Amino acid sequence: MRTVGVEEEILLVDPESGEPRALAAAVLARADLDSEVFEEELHDQMVEFATQPRAHMEELGAEIVRCRKEAAQHAGEIGCTVAALATSPLTVSPSVGVGRRYQWMAEQYGIATQEQLVCGCHVHVSVESDEEGVAVLDRIRPWLSVLSALSANSPFWQGKDTSYSSYRSRVWQRWPSAGPTEVFGSAERYHRRVADMVSTGVILDEGMIYFDARLSASYPTVEIRVSDVCLHADTAVLIATLIRGLVETAAREWRAEGEPLVQSVSLLRLAAWQAARAGLEGELLHPETMRRLPARTVVQALLDHVSDALSDTGDVDRARAGVAESLGRGNGARVQREVMARTGSLRDVVAECVRRTQGH
């Protein structure tokens, strides 16, 4: 069974005002750094944690919950708290970390770096080789926008409703190496493309290959990077479950010599934009036809696509229940807007998200 690991970026916020606080260094100083669970990020108002690779989704879910609570504990010791928000609903002036890498990015990309205070969820799934990994990347491309819609959790930006469900994904597209990719066809072509991009000098190194899905530079995994950090831990587990199903389904297609579904990068960008705009509230582009259909129909198509793989890992009932819960309760974007409609206060939005982040 393929193992899965999750990386979540979360905001540090003031428990009273809800405003982001630049206290990452203090939080990390209180964390168990030897565990390599928590890491600094581009901005001082956020931290990242990474789970261990897990084969069973129950264990992965328990670890996500534990890491969120541990982050909240460390933050509470210095007078702040954590929120699984992909963007800050309240106005913020982000501060870039002092590390050499982050300062290079600030100099190279200017305001795009300064404004990049966004939190994502990255999912790693084990693969047997780079060849299998690239075959997977080639075959999961059309389905990634559906994951973006399910995870959408960033409707507000600098105190305003953006009219998007995932505005984080639109901000992320400012990086020159971000977004969907064409079909590579082989690991050799993939690595050649990465080397060519690094050699331009526009990006610093391989770590700045911000494809929607990529081969990990550090682990024998594919890394899927399209999701907002999810408001609810169970949504993060659902995303990880569906992604493992996608990876296994794609690997089986490759071994059976099935060809990837070739949708152009132009169409994939449109699908990603539509998912960011609509989330689960409107229509999405169906990955196979690239035509608009109700979000519920397209999410069901994803579930059907990976159902055999999910059945073999014992996850199909969990995934069906998770999809039903997400469609009924809504993603983080819907929750945030419902709180705003009810209270008229973005501070109350943050407070409710803090509560849900910690499972209360």
UniProtKB/TrEMBL annotation:
Its EC number is 6.3.2.2. Keywords: ATP-binding, Ligase, Nucleotide-binding. Coiled coil: none annotated. SUPFAM superfamilies: Glutamine synthetase/guanido kinase. GO terms for molecular function: glutamate-cysteine ligase activity. It catalyses: L-cysteine + L-glutamate + ATP = gamma-L-glutamyl-L-cysteine + ADP + phosphate + H(+). It is an enzyme of class 6 (ligase). InterPro entries: GCL_type2/YbdK_subfam (IPR050141), GCS2 (IPR006336), Gln_synth/guanido_kin_cat_dom (IPR014746), YbdK (IPR011793). Belongs to the glutamate--cysteine ligase type 2 family. YbdK subfamily. NCBIfam families: gshA_cyan_rel, PRK13517.1-1. PANTHER family: GLUTAMATE--CYSTEINE LIGASE 2-RELATED. ATP-dependent carboxylate-amine ligase which exhibits weak glutamate--cysteine ligase activity. This is Putative glutamate--cysteine ligase 2. It comes from Streptomyces pseudovenezuelae.
